[in-house]
Write a structure and sequence with these properties.
Layout (H helix, E strand, L loop, with lengths): L2 H11 L2 E6 L4 H6 L2 E3 L1 H10 L5 E5 L2 H10 L4 E3 L15 H10 L5 E4 L4 H4 L4 E3 L4 H7 L4 E5 L2 H11 L2 E4 L14 H10 L4 E4 L5 H6 L2 E2 L2 H10 L4 E5 L4 H8 L4 E4 L14 H10 L8 H21 L1
Parallel strand pairs: 1-2, 1-3, 3-4, 5-6, 5-7, 7-8, 9-10, 9-11, 11-12
Helix pairs in contact: 1-13, 3-4, 7-8, 11-12
The protein binds 1,3-dihydroxyacetonephosphate and iron/sulfur cluster.
Length: 306
């Protein structure tokens, strides 16, 4: 029996589901029960009532979010080292420091943070709903972390004052995209549409025809009448884009735009995760309680908007 057959068999035996982030390797996306962005995957985990085990093929903060929202399910991260460096850039202590400086200002945290940091925020957001969440807040000034590029994007879109915490938080993968490369590709493919993730720099966003999260890019590409797209986000998304749009062409805006943390997950590790039920992601209940509230507030706002 090959690896894929073994994974399928174990999933059935153990009542497990495999969730894969849009940046996972193609062979993982192809056998996953669901492929999506960070928050879509956590919602999927909640709606799968029969599942007892969730194998979350992604990075630490996403598996933590799933564990917090699904306290009665076992959440497994196939690679213990799959940690998002941006999430590590904002600690609970740093947030406490900013809260002391701005006691009346709400704290909004991107889901790309550790649960220990989320426990100190008022509400969470994702790149797909950050603008909506900030607009819904009854405040003109907001502390926002950890991505200063996303903070800047939200400020441009909402006109509110967004104070980034820390001042320099960033995603090393999205920082690899440079306007010179995008300009060159646009010259080579004048009929192409440039899609840019909001974690990219302001210079990249200014060149973009569309700025959005991974799932928003999927929707945009599906609904657009264009046939060619230059894509500025992690290369894993191109597999999904090509699969969903066989007649369209997708060009990565920088060849080496790979998130090494996302790519730590392999079919072998998924098989081992299922077989040995490792690595179990759990969050202490006091931290989980606060963090769950901040996540639920986010869901309330986006559900209200429909
Ligand atoms: P999404 O919220 O689009 O899934 O992105 C998460 C991420 O890690 C972006 O780099
Ligand atoms: Fe973190 Fe960037 Fe990798 Fe996303 S792409 S998981 S933000 S390092």
């Amino acid at each position: 029996m090959d690896l894929v057959d073994n994974i399928v068999k174990l999933k059935k035996e153990k009542k497990a589901i495999l969730l894969a982030h849009n940046y996972q390797r193609p062979e993982i996306q192809d056998i996953a029960d669901y492929v999506g962005d960070s928050i879509e995957l956590s919602r999927k985990a909640m709606s799968e009532k029969e599942a007892e085990i969730i194998v979350f093929s992604a990075v630490d903060f996403m598996a933590e979010t799933a564990a917090i929202l699904n306290p009665h399910k076992k959440v497994l991260l196939p690679s213990l080292g799959a940690r998002c460096p941006m999430a590590q850039m904002l600690t609970a202590d740093e947030i406490k420091k900013w809260k002391t400086l701005y006691p009346l200002v709400p704290v909004v945290l991107y889901v790309n943070t550790l649960a220990s940091a989320k426990a100190y925020c008022d509400i969470c957001c994702t790149s797909a709903n950050a603008v909506e969440i900030i607009e819904a807040l009854d405040a003109e000034t907001v502390l926002f972390g950890p991505d200063h590029n996303l903070a800047e994007y939200v400020q441009e879109k909402t006109g509110k004052t967004i104070l980034p915490i820390p001042e320099w938080g960033f995603c090393p993968t999205h920082l690899l995209f440079q306007p010179e490369d995008a300009d060159m590709l646009k010259m080579q493919h004048p009929d192409a549409v440039l899609m840019v993730h909001p974690e990219c720099t302001a210079e990249m966003r200014r060149l973009a025809d569309f700025v959005g999260s991974t799932s928003q890019m999927c929707r945009f590409a599906r609904e657009s009448s264009s046939e060619k797209f230059i894509v500025a986000t992690e290369e894993g998304l191109l597999h999904r884009l090509r699969k969903e749009n066989p007649g369209k062409q997708f060009i990565l805006a920088y060849e080496e735009a790979v998130c090494p943390n996302m790519k730590l997950n392999t079919l072998e590790r998924i098989y081992l995760a299922l077989k040995e039920e490792k690595y179990v992601i759990s969050v202490p209940e006091d931290v989980a309680r606060h963090t769950r509230k901040a996540l639920e507030k986010m869901f309330e706002v986006i559900n209200r908007k429909g």
